[in-house]
Amino acid sequence: MKAKVYVTLKPGVLDPQGKAIQHSVELLGFAGISDVRQGKYFEIALDNSLDADGAREAAERMAKGVLSNPVIEDYRVEIE
Amino acid sequence: MKFGVIIFPGSNCDHDAYHVISKHVGQPVDFIWHRDTDLSGYDALIIPGGFSYGDYLRAGALARFSPVMGAVREFADEGGLVLGICNGFQILCEAGLLPGALIRNRELHFICRHVHVRVETTETPFTTALNSGEVLYLPIAHAEGNYFCDDATLEELQREDRIIFRYTDAGGEQKDEANPNGSRAAIAGICSRQRNVLGLMPHPERACEDLLGSSDGRGIFRSLANTLAALA
To answer: Which of residues 33-62 of B touch A (CB under 8 A)?
Structure first.
């Protein structure tokens, strides 16, 4: 089983890296981009000692406790 | 009066802090490895600058899981004095000992230069020997020094007089161009509700000798020593 965790900046938190990426993408010729926000993506391989609900609970705890900083970031977990 | 300087893998201002305590404060000081958990006998701890765990994940995010941090939390809860400088400030925020977070500098660059910070209050164990409104000339060296907190936290910090240092110009005036990293409310340093934990991005330990361009950092260490002497 695999847990996928997406960590994104909360709305309103400045993302200067996203701004710099947007600028570069525009220099490449893409128009019509109103915003770029950079986030983080984690793939966590889990052995089969957990069922899907247990895996989700474990991944949520990891996402909340380590992978994201709740002051500035949100997270989303997918199990597959 | 005994000081401890905590070393994480990747700390690199530990020797500067040690030097200042032993030479300028003139007090005993130990290095404390991040795997140690016994902090008995210490009166003040310094969490120094550097790049603990290579700044992996987020600056300070992994250091907070080091074994020593549980003991640091207990030490702080019992009123022990904790000074977090630069990466130390980031670690204290990640550990929840101070509110808010340090995010990427507004202009993205790593900034390494001297800046001016204004002392906002002398009502902390770290600023008693300074004057309110006094402007210090201190070096900064960081890529993630942009202090962020939500509106409620900012209001609380202001109401409780917990913003200790702000970025200003040389005359002590707060203006956007004097804010090097985009920090909210020009915050350069804050303290805990009990006022015994201070975090700041500038490096006072690198500003204790005129030869290094400024000795304005000495007032912070002198305050710390005076506070401890008064408690003894």
So the answer is: 57-58, 61
Contact B61 A16 (CB under 8 A): no
Angstrom distance (rounded) from CA A1 to CA B58? 26
Residues A30-69 pLDDT 10s: 989 999 999 999 999 999 899 999 999 999 999 999 999 9
Boundaries of every domain in chain A:
2-79
pLDDT at B231 over 90: no
CA distance A25 to A19: 10
Domains and CATH numbers, chain B: 3-231 (3.40.50.880)
Verify whether the Cβ–Cβ distance B57 to A66 is below 8 Å: yes
Span B96-119, average pLDDT: 96
Tell me the pLDDT tens digit for each residue of B194-215: 999 999 999 999 999 999 999 9
Q: Cβ(B76)–Cβ(B64) under 8 Å?
A: no
Query: What confidence tens digit (pLDDT) does each residue in A7-17 have?
Result: 999 999 999 99
Nearest-Cα distance to chain A for B89, in Å, is 15
Report the chain A residue with the minimal C-alpha distance to residue B64. A66
Interchain pair B65, A17: CB under 8 A = no
Question: Domain A2-79 is classified in which CATH homologous superfamily?
Answer: Phosphoribosylformylglycinamidine synthase subunit PurS (3.30.1280.10)
**Residue among A23, A41, A42 at smallest CA distance from A33:** A23
Mean pLDDT, chain B, rounded, equals 97
Name chain A contacts of B146, Cβ cutoff 8 Å. 14
